[in-house]
Recover the amino acids of this structure.
């Protein structure tokens, strides 16, 4: 078993115990990157090996002298390329930011750094987190380590694939409509979107500000809870950041769901859901029932309105958030232009890819005068109703169980030709963002093609511990346990 | 002109608030400073940066609202106004559209004794933009973001004004209220107060408003008055010629005394306003509002009544002193330091007003410390300096805020009340002017003034006038 097969917490323990040096861990990650990047393209930017090694030595000293004592000290991590990292370019996988070096580091990343994390690179993503396949990146497509003919999902596809392929021990992703949970599901890893406001958005380059949330992507539930404990904080620089009392997420890692009330929305189990995925969800329900949980089906309602509401709200916010990329202050500027407006037009036409342009146009349209009430305001009302539907459900259930995505990973190129179909793939994840809830995707089993199926647990706001508890209990009960890809035969 | 026309005017007034830091970040709001030195990721629109609201902005805005009889929106929100311009780093401005902090207010104005209410539609909070600087050596435009994120309130009136005089009275009233609150210095020239004029004309008695234009770039009260006259005439001429007024934004050129169209309604921008997702709604609790209310200062009307009652000053003096917050503060500080109200008032009415006029300064430009004025008044009272010398000392205080004791000492201005020395000088003057002595003895009292003048000149103005008079009388009578 190689060092990159360990979970982040396992590797952290070995480093702390002196069984593995930070340098060895760093080299293992860099070796894996050297061996696999050509094939999977998980990263936009990989740090220089020498710089990583120097950092590793520095961290080792701090671990040795007792300055760093946390569970993640010295463990190699990858960060999605929409989080600002001072001195390391941050592109959002867009041409328009190809040479952008932030002057400051995102709060969530700073929290990792304080805990002694070894940041080895910035992962590929759909451009500005718009997409579900990591195919809209300006820096090439990322491939699914389970089968390189398939997509890793998106938009945090680079992070998911890097974790699955062992090109890092864990990663940070961001989730606006499923961008952590869906790629986690496709890549056979655990991905968690915390309650809106739990992790600071300061330094996360915004897509849909009211929906964006940073979260952990890792090999198991224990890692996720541990990482979340590290990155979550009340940040006065983010007005939407929430001060919580319960940052001890790892305390929920108990294999105990006795009496836990679990609801399965019938609306999630009907048309459009792949039969194998459905079977995996029902199997997960059975496992939890066997452990003493009370599982029943219920009608969540309004599920069909989540996708249109999401694309209106997220696109509207994006159309405004992405306005600052104009060639004036930083990033790409077109080579030749005549006057200011021509510069704006050419810079943005050349700098943004088609999916980003589509959403900017959609967002500008729904906010334009005469349409605001019909689209944006209606979408906001829908969002409020969806939240109410969840409130009603959580009056009865501790956790909602369902699929993370309707299918396993599609083949490369299948999705972009039909954007509506791609949008519909977010159906089980999107409403969680609209309601601001926490959700986690845990690998359940493999389908007949050998691709991972993700099981999603959704909790009420600030009830991360409920879903961590359910996800952990389920994880302990799985029949298929060999989720490590290293040394596996190439498909 | 056969028909009678009426001018209908509404104002949008932007006021820069006097907070120490910007509205959404901790950068300084200080005016000036090398370009882009008062900046951070937030006010330069760096990716990933987020705004955090400065509480003081809410308090100032609410205080202005309370002082202008507005209803305070206790649950209010910010919205984004989207438009592309390089001085606007995010290409959106954080402003308020749907739930502005203040609504439905009014202020009372007084034009030649006629009192009238001007209604305030709303007051909202927003951020200022940066500044574009053209570099003639390269032909490039440069952006300075020092002003980006400086807090503004925009006070939107109803179309209740009918003349330039009413507009000026309204602006002066707003300025006074805001200065009294300490919420802004309201300097038009420096741009800390800016007014856009919405103007239309209609026949007297007409029910409907005419088509309005919006006038920008008005940098002084006199420019506003000229722009209103000019625009009114332009619109009446159009109507008289059977042409139509076009709804548009116009830029006033005060040198040419003419306005030029900037953009018409057709190419008006769609700002695509929507609620600012990076800021949570502002909840102004009853307690907070009470706290703001309890901190409201004594406004002009109340002060005027008190000054009359407490100090017995003439109404004319009171009006001048209370017309400007700096003068009021100066007056009250001097009283607090122990000076007599009438004496302070005399200095304000006399030398201060004169110097302001001579030096073409605004009262708010006064920068000397009240303590130095009070010290000087005490020196007059103790006879350390005479009034004539005091005028000179005061100019030095006014210009350079000198300590009068030090200044008098260094410049040898202390009153000479050494009787022996004075007597010697006067004896000499009397001896050298036998003709004037004769005149005096012949009953020409004017000759006395001649001797006093000569003595003062010889003493370089430092003689104690009472003593000079006394000695002269002794010698001549």
């Amino acid at each position: 078993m190689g060092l990159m097969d360990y979970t982040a917490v396992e590797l952290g323990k070995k480093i702390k115990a002196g069984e593995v040096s930070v340098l060895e861990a760093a080299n293992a990650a860099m070796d894996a990157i050297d061996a696999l990047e050509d094939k999977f393209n998980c990263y936009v930017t990989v740090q220089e090996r020498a710089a990583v090694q120097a950092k590793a030595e520095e961290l080792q000293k701090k671990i040795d002298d007792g300055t760093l004592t946390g569970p993640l000290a010295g463990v190699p991590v990858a960060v999605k390329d929409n989080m600002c990292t001072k001195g390391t370019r941050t592109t959002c996988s867009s041409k328009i930011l190809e040479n952008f070096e932030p002057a400051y580091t995102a709060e969530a990343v700073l929290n990792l750094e304080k805990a002694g994390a070894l940041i080895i690179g910035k992962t590929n993503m759909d451009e500005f987190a718009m997409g579900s396949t990591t195919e809209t990146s300006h820096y090439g497509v990322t491939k699914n380590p389970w089968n390189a003919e398939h997509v890793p999902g998106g938009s945090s596809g680079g992070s998911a694939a890097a974790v699955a392929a062992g090109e890092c021990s864990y990663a940070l992703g961001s989730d606006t409509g499923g961008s952590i949970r869906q790629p986690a599901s496709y890549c056979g890893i655990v991905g968690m979107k915390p309650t809106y406001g739990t992790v600071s958005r300061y330094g996360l380059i915004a897509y849909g500000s009211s929906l964006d949330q940073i979260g952990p992507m890792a090999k198991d539930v224990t890692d996720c809870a541990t990482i979340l404990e590290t990155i979550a904080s009340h940040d006065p620089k983010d007005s939407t950041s929430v001060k919580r009392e319960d940052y001890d997420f790892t305390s929920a890692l108990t294999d105990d769901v006795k009496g836990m009330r679990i609801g399965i929305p019938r609306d999630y189990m009907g048309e459009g859901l792949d039969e194998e995925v459905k079977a995996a969800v029902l199997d997960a329900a059975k496992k939890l029932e066997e452990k003493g949980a009370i599982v029943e089906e219920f009608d969540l309602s309004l599920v069909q309105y989540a996708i249109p509401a999401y694309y209106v709200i997220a696109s509207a916010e994006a159309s405004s958030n992405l306005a600052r990329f104009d060639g004036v202050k930083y990033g790409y500027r077109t080579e030749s232009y005549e006057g200011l407006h021509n510069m704006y037009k050419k810079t943005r036409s050349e700098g943004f890819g088609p999916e980003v342009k589509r959403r900017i146009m959609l967002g500008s349209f729904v906010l334009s005068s005469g349409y605001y009430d019909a689209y944006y305001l209606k979408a906001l009302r829908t969002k409020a109703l969806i939240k109410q539907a969840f409130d009603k459900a959580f009056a009865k259930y501790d956790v909602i169980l369902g699929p993370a995505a309707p299918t396993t990973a599609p083949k490369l190129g299948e999705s972009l030709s039909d954007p509506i179909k791609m949008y519909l793939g977010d159906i089980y994840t999107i409403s969680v963002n609209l309601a601001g809830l926490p959700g986690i995707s845990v690998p359940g089993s493999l389908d007949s093609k050998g691709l991972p199926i993700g099981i999603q647990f959704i909790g009420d706001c600030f009830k991360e511990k409920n879903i961590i508890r359910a996800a952990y209990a389920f994880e302990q009960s799985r029949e298929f346990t060999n989720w490590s890809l290293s040394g596996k035969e190439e498909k | 002109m056969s028909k009678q026309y009426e001018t209908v005017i509404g104002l949008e007034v932007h006021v820069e608030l006097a907070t120490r830091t910007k509205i959404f970040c901790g950068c300084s709001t200080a005016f000036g400073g090398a370009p882009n030195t008062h900046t951070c990721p937030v006010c330069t629109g760096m990716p990933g940066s987020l705004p955090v609201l400065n509480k003081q902005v809410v308090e100032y805005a609410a205080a202005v609202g309370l002082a202008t009889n507005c209803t305070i929106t206790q649950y209010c929100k910010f919205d984004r106004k989207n438009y592309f311009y390089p001085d606007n780093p995010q290409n959106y401005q954080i402003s308020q559209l749907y739930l502005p902090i203040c609504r439905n207010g009014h202020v009372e104005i007084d034009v030649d004794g006629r009192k009238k209410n001007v209604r305030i539609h709303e007051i909202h909070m927003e951020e200022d933009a940066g500044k574009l600087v053209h570099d003639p050596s390269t032909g490039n435009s440069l952006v300075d973001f020092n002003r980006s994120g400086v807090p503004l309130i925009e006070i939107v009136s109803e179309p209740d004004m009918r003349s330039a005089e009413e507009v000026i009275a309204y602006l002066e009233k707003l300025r006074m209220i805001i200065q009294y609150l300490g919420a802004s210095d309201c300097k038009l020239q420096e741009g800390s107060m800016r007014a856009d004029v919405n103007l239309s004309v209609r026949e007297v008695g007409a029910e409907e408003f005419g088509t309005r234009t919006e006038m920008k770039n008005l940098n002084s009260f006199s420019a506003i008055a000229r722009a209103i006259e000019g625009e009114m005439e332009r619109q009446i001429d159009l109507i008289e010629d059977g042409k139509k007024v076009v709804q548009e934004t116009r830029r006033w050129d005060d040198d040419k005394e003419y306005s030029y169209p900037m953009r018409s309604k057709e190419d008006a921008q769609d700002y695509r306003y929507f609620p600012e997702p990076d800021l949570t709604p502002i909840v102004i609790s009853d307690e907070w509002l009470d706290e703001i209310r309890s901190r409201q200062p004594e406004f002009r009307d109340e002060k005027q009544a008190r000054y009359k009652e407490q100090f017995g000053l003439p109404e004319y003096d009171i009006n001048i002193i209370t017309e400007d917050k700096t003068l009021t503060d100066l007056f009250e500080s001097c009283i607090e330091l122990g000076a007599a109200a009438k004496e302070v008032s005399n200095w304000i009415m006399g030398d201060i007003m004169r110097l302001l006029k001579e030096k073409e300064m605004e009262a708010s430009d006064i920068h000397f410390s009240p303590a130095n004025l009070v010290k000087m008044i005490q020196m007059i009272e103790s006879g350390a300096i005479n009034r004539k010398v005091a005028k000179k000392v005061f100019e030095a205080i006014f210009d350079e805020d000198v300590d009068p004791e030090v200044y008098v000492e260094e410049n040898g201005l202390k009153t000479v009340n050494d009787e022996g020395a004075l007597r010697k000088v006067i004896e000499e003057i009397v001896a050298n002017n036998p003709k004037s002595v004769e005149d005096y003895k012949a009953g020409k009292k004017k000759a006395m003034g001649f001797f006093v003048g000569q003595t003062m000149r010889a003493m370089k103005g430092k003689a104690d006038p009472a003593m000079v008079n006394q000695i002269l009388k002794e010698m001549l009578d």
The longest strand of chain A covers residues 439-446. Chain A has a mean pLDDT of 96.
